[in-house]
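thread from #wetlab-drylab

HS: before we spend reagent money on co-crystallization trials with adenosine-5'-triphosphate, can we at least see a predicted complex? here's what I'd submit
DV: go for it
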Amino acid sequence: MDIRIENLTKAYGDFKAVDNMNLTVGDGQLVGLLGPSGCGKSTTLFMLAGLTEATTGRIFFGDKEVTKVAPEDRGIGLVFQNYALYPHMTVEDNIMFPLINRKVRKDAARQQAYEMAKLVQIENLLKRKPSELSGGQQQRVAIARALVKKPEVLLLDEPLSNLDAKLRVETREEIRRIQQEVGITTIFVTHDQEEAMSISDQIAVMKSGVVQQFDVPQSMYLNPCNRFVATFLGTPEINIIDVEVLGGTIKCGDVVLRTGVDVKNGTYKAGIRPESFTHRENDHKYSVNSVRMIGRDLLLHLDMAGRDVRAITHSGQSITTGDTVEFSVRESSIILFGSDDKVIGKF
Amino acid sequence: MEKKSMKGWLYLLPALIIITVFTLYPLIRAFSMSIMLDYDMIHNTFTGYGLENYQKVLSDKSFHKALGNTTIYAVVVVPCSIILSLLIAAMINGTKKTKGLFQTIYFLPYVTSVIAIGIVWSWIYNSRYGLLNSIISFFGFDPIEWLNKPKYALPALIIFAVWKSMAFNIMVFLAGLQTIPKEIYDAAKVDSTPRWRVFLRITVPGIAPMIVYSYIMGIISAFKVYNEVYSLYGGKAGPADSAITVVYYIWKKFYQSFKYGEAAAAAVILFFIILAFTMVQKLVRKFLSR
Ligand SMILES: Nc1ncnc2c1ncn2[C@@H]1O[C@H](COP(=O)(O)OP(=O)(O)OP(=O)(O)O)[C@@H](O)[C@H]1O
Ligand SMILES: [Mg+2]
């Protein structure tokens, strides 16, 4: 089932938590809703769930408009940020609960709950209470409970935020596996860009209630539409530096970064990702302010005409603080931003 | 070290003095009084020590009646009050807009003096001009002599007491309801849970500790009922003492019959009954919190 969001707005007084959102999610897709805290992700999700009433705009599930439909009639599964399991019921009762409410017979419900528990690999925990489970296990119970009623849309609100780093990675792969196995249209809210990029078919980046860009992860990373998106995606963060364009030459201070570009003369902000620096003989010499090992790579802090920029290079080389390195910036990886922070082009 | 603990005792001193004067001393005095025979408070004389006071009280029909009434009160008033309070608390908690209005209504009996309310209720119960009887006769039933017939004395007291004790229970339950996360109710909504099942499977288990607390507190205060009786029947325990309670019995022995020893013996018995319930409450809470 595909989801269509048209001009969706949620206002609290004068404040717009979600502002004129338009989005279409294809059938069976997993879309990551990404943005900083307070940008309106949960509000969007709760409007899709029907727990929050939209101020204006419309929501369609398939051909059917559901804007005014009650949550229980929307055919959704919802996983809350804190899981919201029923604390006084066993895991099994938690998973069975939506079925019992739909008047499914008890033995049939128990059977389906067992199968769902098997899918999320908690079938040996069925007799426990939620308080006797780890965060990751609780989260699987929440997913099982959301999926057991065979919803057509699955909504997840930062489901991994309570887990430790390793479990997060494991569980997000798990979610992706289950989602693919069931083939359910899914919206996944997160403020972690890496998480969104690694499991989403498409990502919607939000800021202050407004969707900035909606794209597949790779092209969002390579072709951000504005400075916010460029900065929000990628670790270490993209370098934003002041540059001057004069007669087709992009310069940062006295460092010539590119020649022969077709851009009006003037000063601009430029974005250069740390991994865009590449070693080249006889190019500009940068002095190294500091070196840090981050796993496979080295993170260098370089001096570019008095400004500090981050560059990544593979850790095989022996570079130490105080060295001089010869680097150039890869083709079409300097992103120029206009005065409105929109992207002018890549050079 | 020594100095520090001295300072600690000094801080505790005022509380210790108050407890000694108003709780400990009367308790010891009641115990000693209960085993003094033919004790005369005014001349401070007695004829010896013994358990005759207990014998007299325990074989007194009036005391049995008082215990029986108090027990009925405990098993009818307290559960009724808890169920009604729970429903009302859940209702108030669900509606945001009328919260202020509801708060005024349920809080009223809590802040108004029992005596004043008792007078109002004795008017409500009045067999000729009373509000309750005009409602009853509106539906075609014969009016009931609530306060004059022994048979109706206890039911009248029970209705009054249920209403009166609800304020405290509703407050306790409302505080309990605040501790249940809103997301759990949202989850229940998404799971298409009927309202009665939300109440039984989420709300009630969520505030089970408060329900136990209210129940035990209710029973303990049921054993201490006195004000209610006094005010409803204008200083009597209902027609032919039909609505007598344990504390009323003690009061009567002490101030009307001047049987100080028997009054003290009844008080000591009451003390142990309440002590037993307090222990049970502690045990149940310990069990629930596991
Ligand atoms: N009931 C409300 N009344 C007023 N403002 C609200 C209400 N609910 C949310 N907001 C505001 O709407 C904005 C968006 O909230 P929302 O919960 O959607 O953020 P979010 O993107 O989910 O953030 P987080 O990552 O911290 O969960 C916030 O600024 C919040 O303060
Ligand atoms: Mg949120």
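DV: Chain B touches chain A at residues 181, 183-184, 186-194, 197, 201-202, 205-206 (CB under 8 Å).
HS: ok that's useful, forwarding to the group
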